[in-house]
Amino acid sequence: MSSFDLRYENYLSAFEAYLSAYADKLVTRPAILGESMKYSLQNGGKRVRPVLALAVAETLELPKEEILPFALALEMIHAYSLVHDDLPAMDNDDFRRGKPSNHKAFGEANAILAGDGLLNEAYALCFNESMKGEKYALAAKFLNECAGVYGMIAGQSADMQFSQSGKEVTEEELAYIYEHKTGKLLLAPVVIAGILSGNKYYLSLERFGKLLGKLFQMTDDILDVTGNFDELGKSVGKDEEENKLTCVRLYGLEGAKIRADMCAADCHAVLEGVEGDTSFLHDLVDFVRTRSK
Ligand code: GRG
Hints:
Elements: H1 3-25, H2 31-41, H3 48-59, H4 64-86, E1 95-96, E2 99-100, H5 102-106, H6 108-130, H7 134-147, H8 152-165, H9 171-196, H10 202-226, H11 229-232, H12 238-241, H13 247-271, H14 279-290
Antiparallel strand pairs: 1-2
């Protein structure tokens, strides 16, 4: 196992242990509410956002106990967004991570409530942390900004509006969708670790988080064309089918790959401005660029 794989596994097991302890306590009436929430929260996934949070925390010498509640809240918000995105009214996908999507397993109404439940529980965690003091409240506030109507929700709304408008994509519109729909939830773990560590390297980390979010969505667009169902665990070729604005549509497949390489190079360059052990973060950039799932 490479040292990158080993460190990824270590971050993952710390996160999974924290998540399991939370999930064991999540008992609802009726039971189906909690079951459908856990179905989407504990159904695998790469856990890139919590791993990123833990990795930046380690670079900044922030104890993992400080970041874990925010890492969990972030992953819950990510899980809710996928549950709602898969609904027939949105992206209409029957599969997620190789298994029936939440509404296929539990029905549409339960899936909507599972998403609502995950979002509310995420903020319950944030409220608890906020009581510890100002920097925790600021971290919670930043997560809320990233996920909310000036963040991911705006990105999803723009993606739907622009796709439905039928007009040609502009670079500016694509950048807006990238930055908000996907980018904000990758920016959040980086900046939250920065806030909790006393704003060390704030500007470099903010720049790094934004670039990594852009790279993540670029590879997502590329994989929708080059990937396969078995590895991705979800339908492929949907972007063209649904007239989505993507970097492949704007630049062509080869042009998109070149721009993704340029974005990865920018991520590496920005990391040079951060002191401490950034070797895992450099490897994570390459992982995001070359991922197949
Ligand atoms: C419903 C408010 C609302 C927002 C939905 C996340 C999202 C916004 C839409 C999902 C569609 C999509 C392809 C988003 C872009 C990239 C992305 C978030 C992919 C999925 O994230 P991964 O690859 O998934 O981290 P895993 O399964 O590994 O957790």
